[in-house]
Specification:
0% strand; mainly alpha
């Protein structure tokens, strides 16, 4: 007797678990969408990654756009 049962039963169990996982994920998204709607400009994030990819393909640093998400803070000048 093998541990875990037959191969068909094991596959059926995996399929059932994955289907349940997908259903729970879709349900969670449907429930949270009214509280956290999709951004108005959903493509903004994609465009940021697209520009980084273009820079990388051109042989430049993909991180050249250093102002993304940066909060400007005043310079601290040490006392003399």
């Amino acid at each position: 007797m093998s541990i875990g049962g037959s191969g068909t039963a094991r596959i059926a169990l995996i399929v059932a678990l994955l289907a349940g996982y997908a259903v729970i994920g879709v349900h969670r998204q449907a429930v949270s969408l009214p509280d956290k709607p999709l951004p108005e400009f959903l493509m903004e994030d994609y465009n940021c990654y697209g520009r980084a990819l273009s820079r990388w393909r051109a042989g430049e640093s993909p991180y050249a756009d250093h102002h993304v998400g940066r909060v400007s803070r005043p310079q601290v000048v040490p006392d003399p």
